[in-house]
């Protein structure tokens, strides 16, 4: 007999509660009831306050550091598994620890692979995420991975700017594939930044590959952490004759002095998604929601429909 499709249930990890509520609203179901008990030493225990037996469960939570965000996701996956949920989908708007996707020097971990295995061991039967730092991370999973692209959201934002002499830029060599995909969709030129790092989050040298004179430049990247690369690239492009520089980054980690750097830079605007909630307000930062995109994909997944139509690149 064919499997009966029951209504899905959506639950939120603490950090992503606002985004999860927006996703649930677009999906058309109320957000599930979860209570988290916390011990005096910081240990915590999430509890589903409704039955999930035999249902498809979507658990929404970005896993950016600190470690509590990942740990909460793991605990909720385990709780759903032990409560006999039929399908358990981990919805990770931002997949944290993704920068450690290979051994770039001796005696270091491959954290992205470790996190993938932890999620599967905890109970995830499917993963939905957006703009992974490295595409090959999908191969770290033995379960299906739906890798969404924020370009679905951002291309409309770029077109609405109605800029002449548009040029797409990548802040580093690793993001060149993403930049070329945007440029193809927008029929624009591309410039690449070549950077050398003294150590993590510290740039020792940056150079441009291409001419930005008289161009309205849009930098595209998967994340913005300390904003050192973005602001240095923006300042360099303005020095080289660019008309304006904006940036589009999917995941606003924005740690350290990132907000201050953005405010003091020559960046005209930074557009991000709500995959990670902002900790400060800035007149230069615009947030566009990814809730509708995730809700549409989750609906298609639940009803066993193709999601390829949601991909732009």
Automatic annotation (TrEMBL):
Q: Name one GO biological process term.
A: 5-phosphoribose 1-diphosphate biosynthetic process
CDD domains cross-referenced by the UniProt entry: PRTases_typeI
Query: Could you state a single Gene Ontology molecular function term?
Result: magnesium ion binding
Q: Which reaction does it catalyse?
A: D-ribose 5-phosphate + ATP = 5-phospho-alpha-D-ribose 1-diphosphate + AMP + H(+)
* Pfam families, alphabetized: Pribosyl_synth, Pribosyltran_N
The highest taxon in the source lineage is: Bacteria
Q: Does the keyword Glycoprotein apply?
A: no
Please list the residue ranges annotated as the Ribose-phosphate pyrophosphokinase N-terminal domain.
9-123
Question: What EC number is given for this enzyme?
Answer: 2.7.6.1
Instruction: Quote the cellular component terms of the Gene Ontology held in the record.
Output: cytoplasm; ribose phosphate diphosphokinase complex
Transmembrane spans: none
Q: Which SUPFAM superfamilies match?
A: PRTase-like
What keywords would UniProt list here? ATP-binding, Kinase, Magnesium, Metal-binding, Nucleotide biosynthesis, Nucleotide-binding, Transferase
Name of the molecule in the record: ribose-phosphate diphosphokinase
Provide the taxonomic classification. Answer: Bacteria, Pseudomonadati, Bacteroidota, Flavobacteriia, Flavobacteriales
């Amino acid at each position: 007999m064919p499997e009966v499709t029951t209504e899905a249930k959506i639950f939120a990890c603490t950090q992503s509660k606002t985004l999860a509520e927006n996703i649930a609203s677009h999906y058309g179901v109320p957000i599930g009831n979860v209570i988290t008990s916390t011990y005096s030493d910081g240990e915590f225990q999430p509890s589903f306050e409704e039955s999930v037996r035999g249902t498809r469960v979507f658990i929404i939570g970005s896993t950016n550091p600190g470690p509590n965000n990942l740990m909460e996701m793991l605990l909720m996956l385990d709780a759903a598994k032990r409560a006999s949920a039929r399908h358990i989908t981990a919805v990770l708007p931002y997949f944290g620890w993704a920068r450690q996707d290979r051994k770039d020097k001796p005696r270091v971990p491959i954290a992205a692979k470790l996190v993938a295995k932890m999620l599967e061991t905890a109970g995830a039967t499917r993963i939905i995420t957006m703009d992974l730092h490295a595409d090959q991370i999908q191969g770290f999973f033995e379960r299906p991975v739906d890798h969404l692209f924020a370009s679905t959201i951002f291309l409309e934002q770029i077109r609405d700017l109605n800029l002449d002499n548009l040029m797409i830029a990548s802040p580093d060599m690793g993001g060149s594939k993403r930049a070329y995909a945007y440029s193809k969709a927008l029929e624009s030129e591309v410039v690449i930044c070549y950077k050398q790092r003294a150590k993590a989050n510290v740039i020792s040298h940056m150079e441009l590959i291409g001419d930005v004179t008289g161009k309205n430049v849009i930098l595209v990247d998967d994340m913005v952490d300390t904003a050192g690369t973005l602001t240095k690239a923006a300042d360099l492009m303005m020095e080289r004759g660019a008309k304006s520089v904006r940036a589009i980054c999917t995941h606003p980690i924005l740690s350290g002095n990132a907000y201050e750097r953005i405010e003091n830079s020559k960046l005209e605007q930074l557009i991000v998604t709500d995959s990670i909630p902002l900790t400060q307000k800035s007149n230069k930062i615009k947030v566009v929601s990814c809730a509708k995109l995730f809700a549409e994909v989750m609906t298609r997944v639940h009803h066993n429909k193709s999601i390829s139509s949601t991909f732009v690149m």
